[in-house]
């Protein structure tokens, strides 16, 4: 768990600025949902936090430390993608274990953490399967398991439910809510879906054209 701070964060592609100086303090354990129309800069913001996009100017702090220059793997954020991004040739166990292996976590610790996450996410009976042998909902649970085992400072969710059908979306959303209640990991969550925003967010960032137009609780945002 960690606080996250945006200090006048900007992103340009060439001459075009797509995030225009965003400043925000996110508390330890807070669940932030980022909404806004397509192209408003949501993914770019998330990817800057993850270290997948270079920050053009401004400062990004995680746990009080400026991380602008750190590689993704040193930022201690775990990202959950819309398309799951699992390794097709690896088993569920190996998919969840991979991020720990590359960071040199000892084998027993890896086994313990994967077992714990598998239990939380009801994946225990699927650990030897490959991703193609799983339903969409199961794949997304594996993607979340892979994030959880890292015990990161923050979770970054990029529209994690948009490839699921309506019923699985509800189930998986409830699971994300339960996980947050249990782990209290600071979370940034991008979505188009109002129900997801309403039910998950402590605070929402409403983006438009690279600007945070509104920041507030769902009630504050929807009452306006
Ligand atoms: P959102 O996630 O809200 O749909 P994005 O963050 O993906 O929006 O994109 C914000 C803006 O940045 C858009 O205008 C998009 O076209 C532009 N953009 C995104 N990635 C690149 C890139 N690699 N090169 C140039 N422009 C980009
Ligand atoms: P969904 O509609 O949720 O995507 P599917 O209809 O694909 O689910 O699968 C239903 C069940 O069958 C799931 O529990 C899944 O784990 C299992 N299953 C699907 N494909 C395979 C496979 N190739 N091998 C073993 N089990 C599978």
UniProtKB/TrEMBL annotation:
One GO term in the molecular function aspect is: ATP binding
Highest taxon, organism lineage: Bacteria
Q: Which UniProt keywords apply?
A: ATP-binding, Cell inner membrane, Cell membrane, Membrane, Nucleotide-binding, Sugar transport, Translocase, Transport
Domain ABC transporter: from-to ranges:
4-224
Protein known as? Sn-glycerol-3-phosphate import ATP-binding protein UgpC
Which organism is this entry from? Sutterella massiliensis
Residue window of the full protein shown: 1 to 224 of 359
């Amino acid at each position: 768990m960690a606080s996250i701070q945006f200090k006048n964060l900007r992103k340009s592609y060439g001459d075009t600025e797509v995030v225009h100086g965003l400043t925000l303090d996110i508390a330890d354990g807070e669940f932030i949902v980022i909404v806004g129309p397509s192209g408003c800069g949501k993914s770019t913001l998330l990817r800057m936090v993850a270290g997948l996009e270079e920050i053009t100017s401004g400062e990004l702090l995680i746990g009080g430390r400026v991380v602008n220059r750190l590689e993704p793997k040193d930022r201690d954020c775990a990202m959950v993608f819309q398309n799951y991004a699992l390794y097709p040739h690896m088993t569920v166990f190996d998919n969840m274990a991979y991020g720990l292996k590359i960071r040199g976590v000892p084998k027993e610790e890896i086994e313990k953490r994967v077992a714990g996450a598998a239990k939380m996410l009801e994946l225990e009976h699927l650990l030897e399967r490959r991703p193609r042998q799983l339903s969409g909902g199961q794949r997304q649970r594996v993607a979340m398991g892979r994030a959880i085992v890292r015990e990161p400072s923050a979770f970054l969710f990029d529209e994690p439910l948009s490839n699921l059908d309506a019923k699985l979306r509800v189930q998986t959303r409830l699971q994300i809510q339960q996980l947050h209640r249990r782990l209290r990991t600071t979370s940034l969550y991008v979505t188009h879906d109002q129900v997801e925003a309403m039910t998950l967010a402590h605070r929402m960032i409403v983006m438009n054209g690279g600007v945070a137009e509104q920041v507030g609780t769902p009630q504050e945002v929807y009452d306006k």
